[in-house]
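Hey team,

Filing this mostly as a record. A colleague (T.K.) asked me to run one chain through the structure pipeline before their review meeting, and I want the input and output archived in the tracker in case anyone asks later how it was produced. No errors, nothing strange. Just documentation.

Input sequence:
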Amino acid sequence: MIREGDWKYIHFPHLEGVDELYHLASNPHEMHKRIEDPNTAQLVKKLKRRIDSEIGIFSKARSNDY
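Output structure:
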């Protein structure tokens, strides 16, 4: 999960098609997913790249522990 401003993106790395995107200012109870909204496509790409990068950094750091 990652947040940017009013947006919250939830990524499930081992599952396809179940990621979630919420605009918390207009949807504080996370009742309406915006992941399929064409107006958020660029934001979704940006947040997915960011979270994939962070997952990669975490995985690399963790593999160095063993």
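Quick notes for T.K.: The chain has one domain: 2-64. The mean pLDDT is 89.
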